C-alpha cells in the first residue's frame, strides 16, 4: 500500500493527541462515581505510550477516551481531548465516526468476542477502510493479505476467507491488528491485547504487533497490567492508580529507577524467592493416571507426580495442559480411567463418594476466583465455621473462638466475622478462603491459580502468608499456576505439564537452570522479563535458531 | 526491598458495598420505587385484604339468590343483581377469595413440584436430569390451555382437580427456570467446595444453592401467579373451571357477557361484564408492575 | 454442509419423537375415563347390547397398544374416528365423523390466526426493534408501560372493552356467524373477524414486542457491535450488517413462540365472539365430554405448536455461522 492515501501523514515528533485534565465518571450504585480524576496525556506521532495500572485504575477508560469514545454508563465531565486539532469532547458523533476506523483504530482484549461471527475475516479486516472510502475493496483486500503475511499468520493468502470461529485465539488477535492497520491510522489503541493468551502465544503476537507498528511508524496507546510486556512495546510508560497518574517516564528509565514506591510494587512478586529444601517423605503420590471427561478425549496421559511432605510442588503449564484436571483427579471429582492416587501410603478411593470424611478433611482446595469460591449469602463466620462444625464438631462459643483464631492467622481482625463476601476486597476474600481450608486442619492444600486474579502487591501478601503458614504448620502445597514468577517465589519442586503429559519433574533449581527439554525451554523463554530489550534479544535468538 | 511493609490486608481498600441492615436496605429501595410499583403494591394489598375478609366485607351471601334477577345498579345493590338474583357486588368480593385464593394455592403447589425437581436436576446433571428434562419438554409441547381442557374433560371440573391439573402443567415452566438458574449456581466453586467437604445433597440444595436463586424465583413466582390466575379465569370463562354456585370472576364474565349488547340503552348494565374482567386485569397489571420493578432491581444489582 | 444437514435431521427426529410421546399422552387420556362411560355417552336407558357394540366399536376389548396404533395410524391419514355426540340409547347412530366436524372450523381458525399474524408480526418486530434502538427514550418507556399493561389483560377483558366501544361508537359488527356462508368473500370474512383479530393482535403484539426488544438489546451488548461502532460505522450499518445476520435465530424463536401462543389465544377469542372455529368446537366438546373430538383438536393444536418451534429451531440452525462454516 502506498502512503498516498494517508493524507494526514505528518512529521514524527509532532503532537498527535493531547489530553488535558480529563475527568470521566461512571454510573454505578445509583450515583455517578469518578473513574478518571484529571489525567494529562501527550502522544506524539510515531510514539508508543504504555498505560499501566492494576484492576480499577481506569486505564481502559482513559485509552478509549483517547479515541473520544466512552462506554455505555460513562460520561466525560471535564477537560479536553484534542486529536490532531479536533477536540473530541465537543465533536459530534458524525465527526468522531469519520475518525474511527480510519485515523484512529482499536484492538480489543477479547478477539473471539470482538469479531462478528457472521462475516469472513477479510471482509471485517477491510470494512472500515472501504466504508470510509480510503481504498477500493479489491486493493484493500490485497493489502490485507500482505498485512497478514507480515504479521506471520499462516496461509496469509487464504486465512482471510475463514470465519472467526475457524482460527485460534492468537491468530485472531493478529488478524485484529491487521484490521486496525488496514486504514493506515495515525493512532492505534491496544486494549490488553495479549492478556487472554498463553505466554508462548503472547510472544508471537507481541513480536508481530511490534514489527508492524514500527514498520508504519504508527502512534499507539498500549494498555496492560503487565509491566514486563509493556516495557517491550512502549517508548514511554504512564502508571495509573485509582484514576490518577502515579508517574510517567521513558520505559527504560521507569524499569531502572522508578520514582514512586507504587511503581516498584508492580513487580513485587518477582522480588520473592524461596530457598528449596529437599525431602524424601512423600505424602501424596500420583501414579500412572489417565483421565478423560465423559467419553470424550483423553486429557491426562500417564501422569506421575510425587509430592513431598511440608514442601511446595508447583504444577506449571499453559491452558489445556491438564494441570487443573490433575487437581480434579486428586480431589476425587474426576475418577481416573487408570492409575491411582496414594495418600500417606494408602490408595485413595477414586470417587468422591467413596472417601471418608477424614480423607476429605486432609486434602483441602483453594480456588482461583475467591468471588465464586464463597457463597455470597454466607458471612465469614459461617464460611469458616462450617468446616469446624462439620469435621471437628465444634459449635457455639468454641466455634466462634476458633474462627477468630483463624482470622488472626490470616492477618484479619475480628471485625470481619460478620462480613459478607461482597463487603471485602479481592485479597481479603482469598484470605478467607485460606482460613476455610485451614479450619479443616489439612495436610495438603491444593492451590489452583490462587493469585492470578489479584494485583501484584496483593499477590505478594498472599504468597508470604502461605509460606508463613507452611513454616508454622508444616502444610504441603500443590500449587497450580501458569505464572513463572509465582513458581520462583514459592516452590521447592516443579512439575512441567504439556498437552496432558508431565514433561519433567524436579527441584526448582534443577528445572529452572539449563539445559532444558525443548518445551520447558520454550515456556521459560516466553515469560516476559523486566528488561526492555528482552523481546528483541529473544527474537534474535529464535531467529538464529530457526 | 520495596516499601510494602506498610501494606496490611485488613486495611486493603476496594470498591466494597457499604453494610446496611436489612431494614435500612428495604427502606432505601422502597423510597426509590417508581410510581407503577407503588400502584402495584397498594393494589395487591387491597386484594389481599378483600380476599381475607370477604365474609365480613360482603353485604350479602355468596349464593344468596333471594333478590329479583337483573336488578339495576344502585338501590340496595351497588352493581345490581345477576340472572338468578344474586348480589353482584357480594359475588365480586367472594370472587376475590375464590379466584385469587385458588390461583395462589396452585402457584405454590406448582413451585413445590417444579422448584424441587428443578433443584434436584440441576445438582444431579446425570440421568435423573435427562429424564426429567425430556419429560418436561414433551409436556410443554402441548399448549397448556389445550392440555388443561383435555384433562378437565377426563377428570371433571372440581376445584381440586383444577388446582392439581394446572399446578402440574405449570410446574413444567417452574422446573425449566429453576433448573436453568440453579445450574448456573451449581457450577460455582463454592458448591464444589461444599461437595469436596463431603456435604450431603440436602445441605447443598438448601444452604448453598437455594439462597442464591431466590431473587429470580421470587420474580418468577409473580409471573407464574399471573399466568395461573389468567389460565384459571380463562378456563372458568370457557365453562371448564370453577363450577357454580362458587363465585368466580371468570364465570361471572361469561354469565354477564350477554348484557354487553344493551350498553347502548343502559351503559351501566353494559359495563357489568367488565367488572369481573376488570378485577382480573387490575390484579395482573399490579403484579406485573411489581415484578417488573423487582426484576429491574435485581438485575441492576448484578452490574 | 454435512454438519448442518446432520443437525437439521437430528432436530427433525427429535420433533418426531416429541410428536410420538404427545400423541401417546393424548391417546391415553381416554384410558382414565370412568368405566361406565359407555352408559354416560349413550344414556341411562341404553341396552346391554348397544353398550357392548359401542365398546366394540371403540375397540375397548383390544389391547391398548393395538388401539393406539390404530388410532395414530388413522389420525395420520386424517381420520380421527367418530364423535360421541348424536348417539342415542336406542342404538340409532346419528354421530358424525370427527373430521367432518372440525375441518371447516379449522379453516376459520387458521384464517383468523393468519390474519392476526400478518398484522401483528411486522408491527411487533417494528416496535420491538425501534424500542431497543432508542432504549430508555420516552418512546421506549411509553411502549414498555403500554405493553406491560396490555400483557396483563386477559383476552376476554380486551375483547369486551373492544366490543363495548364498537357497540357504542364504532358500529362494527362483532357477528361472525356468517363466516361459513358460501358467498362470503375473503374481504367479507376479514371484515367479520376485525374485532377478534384486533383482540388477538393487542395481546400478541405486546408479548412479541417485549421479547424482540430483549433479544435485540442482548445482541447489541456484544463486543463485536462495540467494535463495529469503533470502526466508525453508521448506526444503520451497525444494525443491518452486524446485528441483523446474528438476529435471525432469536427473532425466529420469538415469532414461533408467539404464533404458538396465538393458537391458544384463538380458543378463548372464538368463544367470546362465537366464531365457528376449531377452538370453539373443542370447548363445546369439552362441555359435552366428546372425547374423540377433544383428542383430535388437542392433537392438531399440539402439532401446530411443535411444528412452529421446529421451524424456529431450523431457522436458527441454518443461520448459525458456526454450523454453516464448520472448522
Automatic annotation (TrEMBL), chain A:
Which part of the chain is the ABC transporter domain?
A: 17-267, 284-524
**Record has Cell membrane as a keyword:** yes
Q: Fetch the InterPro entries from UniProt.
A: AAA+_ATPase, ABC_Ni/Peptide_Import, ABC_transporter-like_ATP-bd, ABC_transporter-like_CS, Oligopep_ABC_C, P-loop_NTPase
Cell compartment(s), UniProt? Cell inner membrane
Primary site of residence: membrane
GO CC terms, sorted: plasma membrane
One example of a Gene Ontology biological process annotation: peptide transport
The entry sums up its family as follows: Belongs to the ABC transporter superfamily.
Name of the protein this chain belongs to: ABC transporter ATP-binding protein
TrEMBL record, chain B:
Topology class, membrane: Multi-pass membrane protein
Ordered alphabetically, the record's keywords are: Cell membrane, Membrane, Transmembrane, Transmembrane helix, Transport
**Biological processes annotated in GO:** transmembrane transport
Q: Where in the cell is it found?
A: Cell membrane
Q: Which residues form a coiled coil?
A: none
- TM stretches of this protein: 37-58, 100-121, 141-169, 221-242, 274-295
Task: Show where the ABC transmembrane type-1 domain sits.
Answer: 96-295
Query: Which InterPro entries did the record assign?
Result: BP-dependent_transpt_permease, MetI-like, MetI-like_sf, OppC_N
Gene3D superfamilies from the entry? MetI-like
Q: Does the keyword Transmembrane helix apply?
A: yes
Major location (coarse): membrane
Q: Name one GO cellular component term.
A: plasma membrane
Return the similarity comment.
Belongs to the binding-protein-dependent transport system permease family.
Q: What is the designated name of this protein?
A: ABC transporter permease
UniProtKB/TrEMBL annotation, chain C:
Which region is the signal sequence? none
UniProt xrefs under Pfam families? BPD_transp_1, BPD_transp_1_N
> Which segments cross the bilayer?
12-33, 110-134, 146-170, 190-209, 247-273, 293-318
Supply the CDD domains for this chain.
Answer: TM_PBP2 (cd06261)
**InterPro entries per the record?**
BPD_transp_1_N, MetI-like, MetI-like_sf
Tell me the ranges covered by the ABC transmembrane type-1 domain, including all copies. 106-312
What PANTHER family would the database entry show?
Answer: DIPEPTIDE TRANSPORT SYSTEM PERMEASE PROTEIN DPPB-RELATED, PEPTIDE ABC TRANSPORTER PERMEASE PROTEIN
Q: What protein is this chain from?
A: ABC transporter permease
Amino acid at each position: 500500500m502506498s502512503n498516498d492515501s494517508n493524507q494526514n501523514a505528518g512529521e514524527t515528533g509532532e503532537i498527535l493527541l493531547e489530553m488535558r485534565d480529563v475527568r470521566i465518571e461512571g454510573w454505578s450504585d445509583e450515583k455517578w462515581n469518578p473513574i478518571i480524576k484529571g489525567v494529562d496525556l501527550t502522544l506524539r506521532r510515531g510514539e508508543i505510550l504504555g498505560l499501566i495500572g492494576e484492576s480499577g485504575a481506569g486505564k481502559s477508560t482513559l485509552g478509549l477516551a483517547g479515541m473520544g469514545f466512552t462506554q455505555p454508563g460513562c460520561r466525560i465531565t471535564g477537560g479536553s481531548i484534542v486529536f490532531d486539532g479536533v477536540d473530541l469532547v465537543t465533536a459530534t458523533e458524525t465527526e468522531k465516526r469519520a475518525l474511527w476506523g480510519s485515523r484512529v483504530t482499536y484492538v480489543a482484549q477479547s478477539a473471539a468476542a470482538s469479531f462478528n461471527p457472521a462475516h469472513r475475516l477479510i471482509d471485517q479486516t477491510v470494512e472500515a477502510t472501504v466504508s470510509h472510502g480510503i481504498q477500493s475493496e479489491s486493493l484493500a483486500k490485497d493489502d490485507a493479505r500482505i498485512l497478514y503475511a507480515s504479521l506471520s499468520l499462516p496461509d496469509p493468502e487464504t486465512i482471510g476467507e475463514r470465519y472467526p470461529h475457524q482460527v485460534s485465539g492468537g491468530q485472531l488477535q493478529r488478524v485484529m491488528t491487521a484490521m486496525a492497520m488496514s486504514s493506515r491510522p495515525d493512532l492505534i489503541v491496544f486494549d490488553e491485547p495479549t492478556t487472554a493468551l498463553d505466554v508462548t502465544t503472547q510472544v508471537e503476537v507481541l513480536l508481530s504487533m511490534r514489527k508492524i507498528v514500527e514498520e508504519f511508524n504508527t502512534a499507539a496507546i498500549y494498555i496492560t497490567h503487565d509491566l514486563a510486556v509493556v516495557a517491550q512495546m512502549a517508548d514511554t510508560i504512564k502508571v495509573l492508580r485509582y484514576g490518577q497518574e502515579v508517574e510517567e517516564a521513558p520505559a527504560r528509565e521507569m524499569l531502572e529507577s522508578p520514582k514512586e514506591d507504587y511503581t516498584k510494587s508492580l513487580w513485587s512478586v518477582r522480588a520473592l524467592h524461596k530457598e528449596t529444601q529437599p525431602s524424601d517423605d512423600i505424602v501424596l503420590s500420583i501414579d500412572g493416571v489417565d483421565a478423560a471427561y465423559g467419553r470424550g478425549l483423553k486429557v491426562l496421559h500417564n501422569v506421575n507426580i510425587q509430592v513431598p511432605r511440608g514442601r511446595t510442588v508447583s504444577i506449571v503449564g499453559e491452558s489445556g495442559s491438564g494441570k487443573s484436571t490433575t487437581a480434579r483427579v486428586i480431589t476425587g471429582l474426576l475418577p481416573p480411567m487408570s492409575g491411582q492416587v496414594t495418600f500417606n501410603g494408602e490408595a485413595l478411593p477414586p470417587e468422591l463418594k467413596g472417601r471418608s470424611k477424614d480423607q476429605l478433611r486432609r486434602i483441602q482446595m483453594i480456588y482461583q476466583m475467591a468471588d465464586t469460591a464463597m457463597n455470597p449469602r454466607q458471612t465469614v463466620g459461617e464460611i469458616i465455621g462450617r468446616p469446624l462444625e462439620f469435621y471437628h464438631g465444634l459449635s457455639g462459643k468454641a466455634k466462634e473462638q476458633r474462627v477468630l483464631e483463624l482470622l488472626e492467622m490470616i492477618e484479619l481482625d475480628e471485625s470481619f466475622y460478620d462480613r459478607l463476601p461482597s463487603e471485602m476486597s479481592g485479597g481479603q476474600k482469598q484470605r478467607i478462603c485460606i482460613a476455610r481450608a485451614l479450619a479443616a486442619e489439612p495436610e495438603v492444600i491444593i492451590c489452583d491459580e490462587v493469585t492470578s486474579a489479584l494485583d501484584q502487591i496483593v499477590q505478594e501478601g498472599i504468597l508470604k502468608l502461605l509460606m508463613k503458614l507452611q513454616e508454622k504448620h508444616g502444610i504441603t502445597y500443590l500449587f497450580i499456576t501458569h505464572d513463572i514468577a509465582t513458581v520462583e517465589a514459592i516452590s521447592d519442586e516443579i512439575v512441567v505439564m504439556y498437552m496432558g503429559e508431565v514433561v519433567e519433574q524436579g527441584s526448582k533449581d534443577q528445572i529452572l537452570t539449563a539445559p532444558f527439554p525443548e518445551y520447558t525451554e520454550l515456556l521459560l523463554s516466553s515469560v516476559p522479563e523486566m528488561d526492555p530489550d528482552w523481546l528483541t534479544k529473544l527474537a534474535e535468538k529464535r531467529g538464529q535458531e530457526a | 526491598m520495596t516499601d510494602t511493609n506498610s501494606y496490611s490486608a485488613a486495611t486493603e481498600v476496594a470498591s466494597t458495598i457499604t453494610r446496611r441492615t436489612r431494614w435500612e436496605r428495604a427502606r432505601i429501595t422502597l423510597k426509590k420505587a417508581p410510581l407503577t410499583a407503588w400502584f402495584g403494591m397498594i393494589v395487591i394489598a387491597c386484594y389481599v385484604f378483600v380476599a381475607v375478609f370477604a365474609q365480613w366485607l360482603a353485604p350479602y351471601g355468596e349464593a344468596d339468590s333471594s333478590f329479583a334477577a337483573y336488578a339495576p345498579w344502585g338501590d340496595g345493590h351497588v352493581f345490581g343483581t345477576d340472572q338468578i338474583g344474586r348480589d353482584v357486588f357480594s359475588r365480586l368480593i367472594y370472587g376475590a377469595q375464590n379466584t385469587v385464593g385458588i390461583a395462589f394455592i396452585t402457584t405454590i403447589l406448582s413451585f413445590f413440584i417444579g422448584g424441587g425437581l428443578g433443584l434436584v436436576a440441576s445438582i444431579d446433571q446425570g440421568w435423573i436430569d435427562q429424564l426429567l428434562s425430556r419429560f418436561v419438554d414433551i409436556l410443554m409441547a402441548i399448549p397448556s390451555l389445550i392440555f388443561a381442557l383435555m384433562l378437565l374433560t377426563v377428570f371433571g371440573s372440581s376445584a381440586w382437580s383444577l388446582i392439581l391439573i394446572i399446578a402440574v402443567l405449570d410446574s413444567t415452566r417452574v422446573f425449566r427456570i429453576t433448573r436453568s438458574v440453579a445450574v448456573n449456581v451449581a457450577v460455582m466453586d463454592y458448591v464444589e467446595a461444599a461437595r469436596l467437604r463431603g456435604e450431603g445433597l440436602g445441605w447443598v440444595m438448601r444452604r448453598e444453592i437455594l439462597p442464591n436463586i431466590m431473587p429470580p424465583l421470587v420474580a418468577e413466582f409473580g409471573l407464574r401467579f399471573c399466568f395461573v390466575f389468567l389460565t384459571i379465569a380463562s378456563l372458568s370463562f370457557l365453562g371448564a373451571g370453577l363450577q357454580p354456585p362458587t363465585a368466580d370472576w371468570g364465570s361471572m364474565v361469561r354469565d354477564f357477557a350477554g348484557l354487553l349488547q344493551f350498553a347502548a340503552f343502559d351503559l351501566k348494565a353494559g359495563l357489568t361484564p367488565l367488572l369481573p374482567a376488570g378485577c382480573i386485569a387490575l390484579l395482573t397489571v399490579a403484579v406485573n408492575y411489581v415484578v417488573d420493578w423487582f426484576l429491574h432491581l435485581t438485575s441492576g444489582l448484578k452490574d | 454442509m454435512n454438519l448442518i444437514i446432520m443437525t437439521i435431521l437430528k432436530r427433525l427426529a427429535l420433533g418426531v419423537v416429541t410428536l410420538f410421546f404427545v400423541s401417546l399422552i393424548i391417546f391415553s387420556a381416554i384410558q382414565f375415563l370412568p368405566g361406565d362411560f359407555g352408559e354416560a355417552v349413550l344414556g341411562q336407558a341404553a341396552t346391554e347390547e348397544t353398550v357392548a357394540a359401542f365398546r366394540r366399536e371403540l375397540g375397548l376389548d383390544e389391547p391398548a397398544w393395538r388401539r393406539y396404533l390404530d388410532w395414530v395410524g388413522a389420525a395420520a391419514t386424517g381420520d380421527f374416528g367418530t364423535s360421541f355426540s348424536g348417539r342415542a340409547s336406542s342404538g340409532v347412530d346419528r354421530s358424525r365423523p370427527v373430521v367432518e366436524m372440525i375441518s371447516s372450523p379449522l379453516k376459520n381458525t387458521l384464517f383468523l390466526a393468519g390474519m392476526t399474524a400478518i398484522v401483528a408480526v411486522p408491527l411487533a418486530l417494528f416496535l420491538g426493534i425501534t424500542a431497543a434502538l432508542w432504549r430508555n427514550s420516552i418512546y421506549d418507556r411509553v411502549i414498555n408501560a403500554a405493553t406491560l399493561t396490555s400483557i396483563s389483560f386477559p383476552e376476554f377483558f380486551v375483547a369486551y372493552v373492544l366490543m363495548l366501544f364498537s357497540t357504542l361508537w364504532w358500529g362494527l359488527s362483532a357477528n361472525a356467524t356468517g363466516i361459513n356462508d358460501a358467498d362470503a368473500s375473503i374481504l367479507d370474512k376479514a371484515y367479520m373477524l376485525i374485532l377478534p383479530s384486533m383482540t388477538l393482535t393487542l395481546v400478541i403484539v405486546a408479548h412479541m414486542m417485549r421479547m424482540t426488544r430483549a433479544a435485540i438489546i442482548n445482541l447489541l451488548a456484544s463486543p463485536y457491535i462495540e467494535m463495529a461502532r469503533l470502526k466508525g460505522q453508521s448506526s444503520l450499518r451497525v444494525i443491518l450488517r452486524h446485528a441483523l445476520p446474528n438476529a435471525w435465530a432469536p427473532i425466529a424463536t420469538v415469532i414461533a413462540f408467539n404464533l404458538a401462543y396465538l393458537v391458544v389465544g384463538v380458543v378463548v377469542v372464538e368463544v367470546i365472539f362465537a366464531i365457528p372455529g376449531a377452538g370453539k368446537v373443542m370447548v363445546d366438546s369439552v362441555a359435552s365430554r366428546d372425547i374423540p373430538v377433544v383428542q383430535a383438536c388437542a392433537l392438531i393444536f399440539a402439532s401446530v405448536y411443535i411444528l412452529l418451534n421446529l421451524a424456529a429451531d431450523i431457522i436458527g440452525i441454518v443461520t448459525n455461522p458456526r454450523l454453516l462454516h464448520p472448522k
